């Protein structure tokens, strides 16, 4: 199936970004930000659907993903390399007349949207956070307020990635022969078990394989730690942008103005969860990573709810039967919630 999607490379003072749009669409602008190990391709169907409802959708590839420039990622700034790229796109002459835009961020993209809101709230008409990374990062914290489990952020960052998955990405593995192949990971964690992605699946796998691999990209560098599990975050690459020593948004409630937020998540998400199968502490607790020393798991959903309760202007929608990408496995429910938010 050919979707009426247009791709354009837009040059900013920071880098050149690949930006998707729907020709002929009109209305309030909605900018979609994808998650880790993916690209704007994961938003195609959603873009078509909301364009038909009177909105003007855009989706960008973050640096190092899809067809955007593979500029190195300085993780010492948290996700600001990504969020500053997004804001630079909104400053481009072809976007200046859009005014404040609706931002929609999935997973890592949710963190990018939160950072953009925090740094320039007047540019945001509304925000939608789709199974977002916790405001206290991914891994290495505990409790509702994101207390570090170790001063060096042990258990998070580039060293927390599965090296076999990294190798499969590097090799361009399109098979379903391994439990860590991109296709298998897509089927098992991006969506709820048993979801049939149909003809879109190959495009999603190709999107995942567009991820640049290395210390400047995915997964990033790491440092040794004297505490279990022995790895601490570095300062380069994707996973270090959301390590709690580099990324922490605990003052979102102080911004002015406060764009309304929709927090939408799947109830079967295994990636961003209070019992995440990608959190080394939880994996240690269930015996999947040896040597566990009792380090508590990160309550990711609880942390997000705590931060949004402080923020105030938000609504939470839980999509039954959805995994990490409710726009993929429960598109009708996702679009209904999104459109209600955009119109409101």
Automatic annotation (TrEMBL):
Entry superkingdom: Bacteria
Gene3D superfamilies in alphabetical order: alpha/beta hydrolase (3.40.50.1820)
Classification via SUPFAM superfamilies: alpha/beta-Hydrolases (SSF53474)
Pfam families (UniProt xref): Abhydrolase_6 (PF12697)
InterPro entries: AB_hydrolase_1, AB_hydrolase_fold
Keywords: Hydrolase
Record has Endoplasmic reticulum as a keyword: no
Domain AB hydrolase-1 intervals: 30-337
GO MF term (any one): hydrolase activity
Record-given protein name: Alpha/beta hydrolase
Lineage summary: Bacteria, Bacillati, Actinomycetota, Actinomycetes, Streptosporangiales
